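Q: What structure does this chain adopt?
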Amino acid sequence: MQPVKIGLLGLGTVGGGTVNVLSRNALEITRRAGRGIEVARAFTRSPGKRRICPTEGIELVTDPWQVVEDPEIAIVVELIGGTSPALELVMRAIELGKHVVTANKALIALHGNEIFAKASEKGVMVAFEAAVAGGIPIIKVLREALAGNRIEWIAGIINGTGNFILSEMRDQGREFSDVLEEAQRLGYAEADPTFDVEGIDAAHKLTILAAIAFGIPLRFDQVYTEGITRITPEDVRYAEELGYRIKHLGIARRSGQGVELRVHPCLIPARRLLANVDGVMNAVVVRGDAVGPTLYYGPGAGAEPTASAVVADLVDVVRVMTADPENRVPHLAFQPDALSDLPLLPVGEIETAYYLRLSVADEPGVLADVARILADHGISIEAVIQKEGQAGQTAVPLIFLTHKVKESKLDEAASRIEAMPAVKAPIHRIRLETLE
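A:
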């Protein structure tokens, strides 16, 4: 049987890794897929650039439309990132009856609903395992391996840059800005790190995971997103004293009221496996009603880890190219006409425990006054750290861990506390999840 010809849109880190994996493991891939997979054309802006992969036998072009419009190419692999021209190129490939494999989380999170609708209309597949958590096959797990479960919640470290920064802050006691500069030098963070440190990248990925887990449309615009720029070495140290570690998590949880979708820093018990995932590694915990909690760990980025997911998608597409489209695994796990309209809860309706750090005057009665306000709003306290003032200090830190409370209630209490003359700065709060 003739090999399936594919076209690459992008021949950078992931594109080069994809060529390497396809070349090195050609025999294994053919045995698994039933046909060979051959890279026929690749779009690159710099054809003469030195590459991490061999390019013999691949026609390099500087116009991406030459890849998409080539009638011999059956699968288009989109690796250029962003939403434009990626969206236009993907939609044209689908219109021409070509299957698509993509590593583009922003494209899927923002435009997946229309892409999948068009793909269903044309009877083609859009595969996107590499869009979330690099080499961890978390999408296949949710879509297929856990199909017998009602997924209750997902919690994941799904951005390696943020995890590297928080790990270094804990291990070395360094400031956020200092570690960010190192992450940029090492290539873990972009020159503009906003997507990573403000949680946007993780929110794209959480949007995709939640849609597959709960059978809801992709709703990126309704994800609550908070970054790690305000985390201090003091917060990291106090969390350790209390038996917790700070991680930047994406959390999706289903309840009787609706679905929570949120990305933010979070205290989690130090004994949890997720709390011990360090550096640029990713990890996702999924709780199903039948299987209980399961953990998936691995590299979240990199040439060959991401290429591993891209090639796995290619094998899946080749395996089912001749299958009846109605009998393929649905893009978002649930049949398109069976997606749920579960409401997404606003952040004020979410219940969680909290770490609260106050800067207060070093004088008698402040702790009692703050505790009284919390009690007035039905907020119970689990633990307190009160530090003694040093000579010359006018303000000292006061740390509380609360039990679970609705966020709107905490907002009301925080407003009253911050109005106290003895409170010298806005309350710094971090949510706390036990992951029970």
